[in-house]
Amino acid sequence: QVAHMWRVDSDPRTHANYHVEEDSAVKNRLRAAAAWFGDFAQKLHQFPELGAERKASDGSPWYGDIADIVAVKRRLGCRSFAWFMHRFRDVYEDGGLVPNEIFHLKSSASGMCLTYLGQAGASPDGKGRAEMRPCDGKDDRQRWHGANRDTTQSGQPCCSGLRAWNTDQCIKGADGEPGGTGHVRTVVCDIGGQTASQAWSVDSEGQLRKRGSKGFMSSSCLEADARGSLKVLLCRRGGAGLDAAPQWVRQWAEEPLETRLYRQALENGEAG
Fold first, then answer.
1. In the chain, which residue ranges form alpha helices assigned H by DSSP?
2. I need a labelling partner for 206 at 20 to 30 A (CA). Which of 30, 97, 144, 245 fits?
3. What is the pTM of this model?
C-alpha cells in the first residue's frame, strides 16, 4: 500500500526526519533525463532553470556520472525514447507535443509579436499570460505551435489550439472577456481537444479566431491594436477587404529540435 502525507506544523508525526540538499531534486531530474532520453536530452538545454549546461569543477556535468544508469538501460535492452513517443503517438503526434513547426505570431497592426510571459516548462499554478512585445527571432517565448487534438476531424489528429512552445500552456482568451484588457490568458493544454475555450487558430484570412460549437468558426477573434493591447472582438468580415493585410502573420517558422530528432528516428527505423 502507498500513502501520501502532508507536512503539518502542529503534528510532529509529519515533520521531516531528513534534510534534502539544495538542487537535489533538479539534479535527480537531470540525471534521469540525460540517461533515459538519449538524443532527446538535447532538449534540456532549452529549459534554463534546469541548468543543464552547468559544469563541475573538473568540467564534467554538474549532476554527476550517469554511466551506471546507462549500463542498466543497455543490460535490460530498453527501447529508445523515440520508440516510446511513437508507441503513444496519439499523445505526442496528435496532441501536438512534436509539432511540425514552431513560429512567431506577428500583429500587423502593432508590428509586435505575441510573447508568453512565463518560463519554459510547466506553469507553477497552471495558468499564464501573454502580451505583445517587440519581435525577436531568437526569443523562444515568442514561439508558438498548433496543439491539441481536433475532435471534429476523422481520427482526431492535431491541431485545434495554439500552444506556447516548451510549455504546458495554450491560449484560452483575453483578460476580462468580452473585450479584454491587453493580455492573452493561457491555461494547461487539453491535448485531447475537449476544452472548447482552447480552440483558437489562425484562419486562412490571418485572423486569430475561436472555434465555435460542432467545429464551426465563431465570430470572436483576438486582435492587437497599434499599441499592442490585446482584445477579443468581432471578427472582420472577409478579412476586412481583399486588399487588407492579415491581422496575424506567422514568421520565422521552423522545425523544432524534438520533431527533427523524432523524424530522424522514424526514418532510421529506431521507433518501429
1. 24-36, 67-75, 81-87, 89-92, 257-267
2. 97
3. 0.87
